[in-house]
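dumping this here so i dont lose it
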């Protein structure tokens, strides 16, 4: 089997019957001097989804450990083997920051920012996908199930099928899959589709995405397809929607802990004991609608509809993809606007917006969710949005209003939320006011039904549904802890 130069010299690993392949490993960049290493719940939906699932499962996770240069040898973490794939500085720039996050990411999110195209980014995308495929081929035992995640690795299923035809290969896309008019802009559209079709099952967050994919494989590759199946030579590739979720029970248990309840009380006190707290928690990303939300809040303040003393906004926006120019520009604009709003409407000791850019541990996030009377989740486009689901799971007393964008995948599952179109500034303001002024009985009723839904449709139900479709025999279900 061909091995790319960066993998030469890597220690051989034991093989696994379940291999997850994702761009990122779920661990911190830094490994302690004694070699100890902890799961990192990095701000991002993919790690949040897969972490509770794989813990204590004899699986291997193939991914990038952060940083550049040779891949570190990592210890098993919570029983999961870590196989790191190295990225050079050039790979990082051209694959992760370039093709993945400056070409595919904007195209897949309605082109709310202009996608960029560079030929060397495509070269890097192919090179890095090849390296991931080879690393995976080394650690997958004969007949193993390999579950490839997300848009960074769309060529891996096809490459892996060539290297290891014995494997059962799944692919899941965490982000939206765009309509044909947008996808057709991609110069390498045929190769990207062919790469995904190397899988036995291609999963999406929403049925619309599966439909877009089916249309595209027919249009671009001339293959026969329905929204459930594509014929590829002598194979049938299944396609479908599998909305990702969270560990509902874990989040509810965390939010219910006495120390978390105490922390929530203290937070409210530290916020000046306002009547109402609005909370938003996002990666700093132009898809999240942060600027539109700030504008809506600022106009409500200016119009006298809300007063800083009574209603505060807590905006958590953890920096993301910081070397990509569109992300730098966004951060500058958001910070300027937060400064303007605080300057104009705040008072000494009473800012209008509490703006935080730090990563928080799960208990602190749960306390924030508990303190939020209104959770504003208003992305312009989002594959799912797990923050919305985490908020619902954390509202153990059934209180709290979720203001949710129609353009988040979660909206299809949580129609009881206060739904808004974040492109419509007036609608956003009205939605925010409606959530702030809602009758507590109505709020409680909505929250109860969302909580009941999430109790059933949690992360394990997602994995069960995906893996049982991948292997109709159901034999893979036993490979996941907590089955
Ligand atoms: P995305 O995958 O686009 O980042 P999601 O809402 O699906 O969006 O997932 C974000 C995940 O990152 C959630 O699990 C959330 O709890 C976590 N997260 C977001 N902000 C922070 C933060 N400041 N500290 C820690 N975790 C965070
Ligand atoms: O949800 C899409 C996604 O790219 C996930 O793959 C990841 O969990 C998250 O956004 C964070 O992105 P990054 O890995 O670029 O920090």
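and the seq i came up w/
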């Amino acid at each position: 089997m061909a091995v790319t130069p960066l993998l030469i010299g890597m220690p051989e690993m034991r093989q696994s019957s379940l291999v997850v392949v994702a761009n990122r490993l779920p661990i911190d960049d830094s490994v302690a001097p004694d070699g100890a290493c902890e799961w990192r719940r990095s701000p991002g939906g993919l790690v949040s989804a897969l972490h509770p699932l794989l813990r204590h499962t004899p699986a291997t996770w193939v991914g990038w450990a952060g940083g550049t240069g040779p891949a570190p040898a990592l210890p098993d973490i919570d029983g999961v083997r870590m196989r790191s794939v190295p990225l050079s500085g050039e790979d990082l720039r051209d694959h992760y920051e370039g093709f993945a996050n400056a070409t595919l990411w904007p195209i897949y999110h309605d082109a709310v920012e202009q996608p960029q195209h560079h030929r060397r980014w495509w070269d890097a995308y192919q090179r890095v996908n090849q390296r991931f495929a080879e690393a995976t081929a080394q650690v997958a035992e004969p007949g193993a199930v390999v579950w490839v995640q997300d848009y960074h690795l769309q060529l891996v299923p096809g490459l892996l099928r060539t290297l290891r035809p014995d494997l059962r290969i799944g692919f899941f896309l965490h982000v939206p899959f765009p309509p044909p008019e947008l996808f057709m802009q991609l110069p390498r559209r045929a190769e990207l589709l062919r790469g995904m079709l190397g899988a036995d099952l291609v999963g999406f967050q929403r049925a619309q995405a599966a439909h877009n994919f089916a249309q595209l494989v027919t249009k671009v590759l001339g293959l026969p397809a329905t929204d459930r199946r594509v014929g590829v030579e002598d194979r049938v590739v299944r396609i479908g929607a599998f909305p990702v979720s969270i560990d509902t029970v874990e989040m509810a248990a965390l939010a219910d802990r006495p120390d978390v309840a105490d922390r929530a009380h203290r937070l409210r006190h530290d916020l000046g004991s306002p009547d109402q707290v609005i909370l938003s928690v996002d990666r700093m990303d132009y898809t999240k609608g942060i600027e539109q939300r700030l504008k809506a809040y600022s106009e409500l303040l200016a119009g006298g509809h809300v007063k800083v003393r009574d209603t505060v906004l807590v905006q958590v926006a953890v920096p993301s993809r910081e070397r990509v120019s569109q992300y730098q520009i966004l951060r500058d604009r958001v910070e300027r606007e937060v400064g303007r709003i605080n300057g104009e409407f705040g008072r000494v000791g009473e800012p209008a917006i509490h703006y935080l850019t730090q990563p928080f541990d799960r208990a602190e996030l749960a306390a924030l969710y508990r303190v939020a009377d209104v959770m504003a989740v208003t992305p312009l486009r989002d594959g799912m949005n797990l923050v919305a689901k985490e908020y619902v799971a954390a509202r153990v007393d059934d209180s709290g209003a979720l203001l949710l964008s129609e353009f988040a995948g979660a909206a299809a599952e949580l129609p009881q939320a206060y739904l808004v179109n974040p492109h419509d500034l007036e609608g956003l303001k009205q939605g925010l006011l409606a959530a702030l002024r809602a009758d507590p009985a109505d709020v409680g009723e909505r929250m109860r039904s969302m909580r009941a839904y999430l109790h059933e449709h949690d992360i394990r139900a997602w994995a069960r549904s995906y893996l049982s479709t991948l292997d109709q025999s159901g034999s893979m279900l036993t490979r996941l802890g907590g089955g």
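The longest strand covers residues 140-149.
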